[in-house]
Amino acid sequence: MNDDAAKRVIDGRAWSQFCRELEAAGQSILRQGTPASELDRAEGVRYLTRLLRAGLGAQLEHGDPRFPGFFQLSNETLKIGNDNPDNIYWNANVSGKYEYRITGTRGTTPYLSFGTKGGGYEKDGTMRPTGKLDGRDMKIEPDGSFEIALSCEPRPGNWLPMTPETSQLIVRITFGDRAKETPATLKIGRVGSAGVPQLDAASLEAALQRTVGFVRGTSNLFVDWMAGRYAAHVNQLPSDDQEICQRVGGDAQIHYYQSRWQLAEDEALWIRPTRIPECAFWNFQLSNFWMESLDYRYAKIHTNKFIAHYEPDGSVRIVVAQRDPGPRFPNWLSTCGHTNGGMLFRWVEAKEFPPIETRVVKVSELHELP
After folding, report:
1. Do 306 and 176 contact (CB within 8 A), yes or no?
2. The pTM is what?
3. Which residue range is the domain that position 347 belongs to?
4. For the residues 270-299, what does the mean pLDDT come to?
5. Band of the pLDDT at 2, cuts 50, 70, 90?
6. Which of 62, 159, 166, 359 could form a disulfide with 96 if both were Cys (CB 3.0 to 4.6 A apart)?
7. How many of the other CB atoms lie within 10 Å of CB of 224?
8. Under a CB-based contact definition with an 8 Å cutoff, are residues 171 and 134 in contact?
């Protein structure tokens, strides 16, 4: 028992410190290079509340790797780092000291991946890869069920490697068309677990501090990207630094093109992959400045391999604009009232990564483009 921690929790100092540090962490949305419009700042404040909600879920409710459970750091109303609108993400806190088992059903989505990670946004701003298992490499039973072993030592069958530094698990379930596909179902447990979780003052205080670290680390990391790394590539889609993408939690089977977009009300961003390679999946999405995907529940802000309109020659043209430019441009994506934000193009399980052409034109000039 930690008597000092108990005293701080009992007399309220632990809570007061948490609130003070959380207030300081929120200064990230006021940093130099961040937009100051009413919409951007309002979304920035909402972003902080979402990070807080995600952080408490991860660090307090599901923070003990002895009693793991799946939770979400990204979904329809929790959004981090250009979250994919075509994904269901599941996360779990695990440890290389233990062994775990995942059971579930495969579902019908075109892509499924499991990745173990080390580090953490609340610690050092990383989610370094420590192990990978792709759905296409898994043994699936005739009824669609599967079992995966998570351990540092190899196991027969479906094995997801960990290392002594492993602290997290990320699952990506990728839809081609949400209306027509069934996602995987998942359950995780520690091998040999016994007893029930017991909260004490020291673990509560530590979880609150990790939560503040998560809000601070996550918000500053992606402001660094938008105000720094991507500032030189506005309205372009260059191939990102893949090593950096992997270091912060990316999927090794995904090649990322990321940058910023900025458009006036009468402007459009015309986007065309130079060619479509053989791949399991591709998609393109729009985000706000905080790198949150725009609200795909209500607006068309992304497209992908399975729902995009293709030209007769097999090419794809995407148009980003405030208003619908008309039926000639069926791959129009809405900016949802924003004038700037982030954007991301993904090639998934591709062997080549063609460049992406972009042009800024007046909406009235779109008809002149090929």
Report:
1. yes
2. 0.96
3. 230-368
4. 97
5. confident
6. 166
7. 15
8. no
In the chain, the number of structural domains is 3
DSSP letter, residue 136? G
Per-residue pLDDT of 152-168, as tens digits, reads 999 999 999 999 999 99
Q: 10 Å Cβ neighbour count for 55?
A: 27
- Supply the CATH number for residue 261's domain: 2.60.120.1600
Please state which of the ranges 53-67, 132-146, 356-370 shows the lowest mean pLDDT: 356-370
Helices (H) and strands (E) in the chain — how many of each?
Answer: 5, 16
- The answer to whether residue 225 is domain-embedded is no
Do 211 and 254 sit in the same domain of this protein?
Answer: no
Comparing CA positions, the residue from 222, 224, 261, 258 lying closest to residue 242 is 258
User: How far, CA to CA in Å, does 209 sit from each of 24, 56, 60, 314, 318?
Assistant: 13, 10, 10, 52, 43
CATH code at position 100: 2.60.120.600
Percentage of the chain lying above the pLDDT 90 cut: 97
How far, in Å, CA of 287 to CA of 261, rounded? 9
What is the structure's pLDDT at 1? 64
Cα distance between residue 130 and residue 126, in whole Å: 12
Residue 3 falls inside a structural domain: yes
86, 174 Cβ separation under 8 angstroms: yes
* Residues shown for the chain: 370
262 with 351, same domain: the answer is yes
Place of tokens 């779109």: 366
